[in-house]
Amino acid sequence: MPQEHSVENLDAAAGAATVVDPRLLVREQGFAGYLTEFKRKMKAGDLGSIPVVIGLAIIWIIFQSLNSNFLTAGNLSDISVAMVGTGMIAVGIVFVLLLGEIDLSVGSVSGVAGAAFAVLQVTNGMNEILALVLSILTGTVAGALNGFFFAKIGVPAFAVTLAGLLFWNGFMLRILGDNGTINLDSDGLVAQLTSYYFSDVAAAYGLAIVATVLFFLSSYFGNKRREAAGVPSRPLSEIILRAVLLGVVSLVVAAVYNQYKGLPLAVVIFIAVLLVTDFVLRRTTYGRKIFALGGSVEASRRAGINVELVRISVFAISGMFAAIGGLFIASKIASANQGAGSGDLLMNAIAAAVIGGTSLFGGRGRTWNALLGVLVIVSIQYGLALEGIASPVQYMITGGVLLATVVIDAVTRKTQKTAGRA
Questions:
Q1: 87 contacts: CB under 8 Å, gap ≥ 6
Q2: How far is residue 102's CA from residue 100's CA, in Å, rounded to a whole number?
Q3: Residue 241 resides in a domain
C-alpha cells in the first residue's frame, strides 16, 4: 500500500506555490517597476541597445558640428538608402550569430546574386521578376550548402564559409565573363529598388500614422490576452506613452524625407523585413529554437529540437538575405561588376550586426540590431566623406568602434555570469 505524504505547514506550502519571479511583476508596477528593472539590468550588465544608441547620437553630433550639411534632409535620406544593401546582409548575419557561428561567404554570395540577375535579365532577356526570384534562390541554395556541410558533415562554419567566400567569388567572375560589368536598365525593377521615392507627402506621413496605430493596437490587444491568461501586463498609460513616442519619431522621420525626394522605397522594404524577421525570431517556435541552439546545442538536442535542420535553415536564410542585399547594392550602382561583394562589404555586414548589439557568443540579439549597426557604419562613412577624409581612416574608425562593441559584449557576458544570468 503506497505511503501517504502529509503537508505539515499548509501556509508555507501555499506561499511556495504562489511565488512569482519579481521580474515578471515589473509590468504591473508601472513606471516605478520599470525604473527598478532598468537599474537591475545595468548592475547585471544587460545593456541592450543603449551603448549603440548613445554612440550613434555622439557620432551625429560630432559630424554635424564639423559640417552643417551632415544632418540635412538630403544627406540623411542618402544615408538611409545607402545602408539598406549592407543592412539586408547584416540581417542574415544576425540569424547566424544567434547560433554562435559565423558566415564569411555572404559578401561573395551577394555579388553572385547581382551578377546572376544581370546575366539572366540583361544578357539573356529573361523576365525581370523571374530573374529576381532565381537570383535570390541562388543565394538561398548557396547558404543551404554551407549549412549542410556544417550541420551534416561537421565541418566548422568558419572553414566552410571561408571556402564559400572563394568559390562564390570565382563563380561570380566566371558568369560575368570577360567584360566584367553589366549595366542594369535604369527603369527596371531592380534599378528602382534604390532610386524610387514616394514623392507624395501623404505616403511618408500616412505610413508613420499607420505604423503607430498598428503598434498601439498590437500592444493593447496583446496586453488583454496577457490579462486574460493571468500574466503580468503593462499599464495602459505605458502603452499609450510608447505609442506616442513612436508616433513622434515616425512623424519627424517622415518630415525629413518629405523635405527631400520623399519616402524611399528601399527604406520601406528594409523596415518591412525587420518587422517580419523580428516577429519570426521572437514570436514563433522556429525563432525560439534558434535562440535555444545559441544557448546550448546539447540541451536543445535533448529537448527534441532537430539541430541539423535548424542550422541548415539558418545558413539558408543568411544566403537569402545576402542575395537580397546584393540586389540592393547592384541597384545602387545600376550595374553588376567584378568588384561586387568584395572590399569591406563582408566586414561591414558582420560589424553592423555586432555593433548593433547581437552577441558574438550566440543566443542574444534581434534583427533590429542590424538597423542600428549599419546606421552607425554608414553615418561614419558619410560623415568622413563630407570632410574629405580618405578610406583608410574610415576603416580604422569602424574597426575601433567594432572592437569597442566586442569588448562591451565580452564584459557584459562576464558581468551577467557573475550576476547568475548567463
A1: 270, 325, 352, 370, 371, 374
A2: 7
A3: no
The DSSP line for 4-27 is P---S-HHHHHHHHT---GGGGTG
The helix (H) or strand (E) run that includes residue 80 is helix 73-98
Cell numbers that stand for 191 in this block: 534599378
In order of 15, 93, 363, the CA distances from 306 in angstroms are 39, 21, 17
This prediction has a pTM of 0.86
- Measured CA to CA, the distance from residue 363 to residue 185 in angstroms comes to 42
Q: How far is CA 186 from CA 4, 45, 81, 195, 338, in A?
A: 82, 49, 17, 9, 19
DSSP state letter for 3: P
Instruction: With beta carbons less than 8 A apart as the criterion, state whether 184 and 335 touch.
Output: yes
Q: Cα-flanking dihedrals φ and ψ of residue 8, to 5°?
A: -80, -35
Look-up of cell digits 505539515: 8
Q: What is the pLDDT of residue 46?
A: 56
What pLDDT, in 10s, does the model give residues 92-116?
Answer: 999 999 999 999 999 999 999 999 9
Structural domain boundaries enclosing 298: 50-199+261-404
- Phi, psi (deg, nearest 5) at residue 181: -140, 135
Instruction: Check residue 238 and give its pLDDT.
Output: 81
Q: Is 103 within 8 Å of 146 (Cβ atoms)?
A: yes
CA angle, 353 then 356 then 359, to 5°: 65
What are the residues facing 182 on neighbouring strands? 336
The verdict on residue 234 lying in a domain is: no
Q: Look at the chain and report how many structural domains it folds into.
A: 1
Instruction: Specify the CATH number for the domain of residue 353.
Output: 1.10.3470
d(CA 70, CA 79): 10
174 within a domain of the structure (yes/no): yes
Question: Is the CB of residue 226 less than 8 Å from the CB of residue 166?
Answer: no
pLDDT tens-digit readout, 129-162: 999 999 999 999 999 999 999 999 999 999 999 9
| Cα 5 to chain centroid, rounded | 54
Question: d(Cα 15, Cα 9) in Å, to the nearest integer?
Answer: 10
Assess if residue 422 is contained within a domain: no
**Percent of the chain residues past pLDDT 70, beyond the cut:** 85
Name the band, by pLDDT with cuts 50, 70 and 90, for residue 36. Answer: low
Angle formed at CA 364 by CA 91 and CA 21, multiple of 5 degrees: 140
